[in-house]
Amino acid sequence: MSWIFLLLGVVAEVLSHVALKATDGFSKPLPAALVILGHLTAFIFLGQAMKGMPVGVVHALWAGLAIVSVTLISALFYREHLDMTAWVGMVLVAAGVMMINFSQGHAH
Predict the structure, then answer these.
(1) What is the mean pLDDT of the chain?
(2) pLDDT of residue 93
(3) From CA 6, how far away is CA 12, in angstroms rounded?
(4) Is 65 helix (H, G, I), strand (E, B) or coil?
(5) 65/48 Cα distance (integer angstroms)
(6) Distance, C-alpha 55 to centroid of its chain
């Protein structure tokens, strides 16, 4: 169940970060409300995930998955383009997330 909460936390965080750009410096109320609600929702889910997984593992997986997901979605949604170095970095982040997932440091 911890994995489900972790993934829901990642989804909430990703949607929140993607909406952050649309706030235009928090001058637009609807996107701003989505950002705040998304962050609160993410923390609630992450707190639940931490009941069954170590804090460091939850945080590392959450951050890594969110970084890669936000980058991919913003490339599609906002047409943001990154150079090859940034994409290599994303691959390294994804590899790190997979290494943490396969480690013996947490329960499945």
Answers:
(1) 90
(2) 86
(3) 10
(4) helix
(5) 17
(6) 15
Which two structure tokens, joined as six digits, stand for 61? 């997986």
Return left, alpha or beta for 107; rule: phi > 0 is left, psi -120 to 50 is alpha, else beta.
beta
Distance of CA 42 to the CA centre of its chain: 9
Using only the alpha carbons of the chain, give its radius of gyration.
Answer: 15
Residue with tokens 């490339």: 75
CB 19 within 8 A of CB 37: no
pTM (2 d.p.): 0.84
* Rounded CA separation 18/31 (Å): 9
For 49-97, write each residue's pLDDT tens digit. 999 998 888 988 898 889 889 988 998 999 988 889 988 988 898 888 8
- Distance from C-alpha of 90 to C-alpha of 11, rounded to nearest angstrom: 18
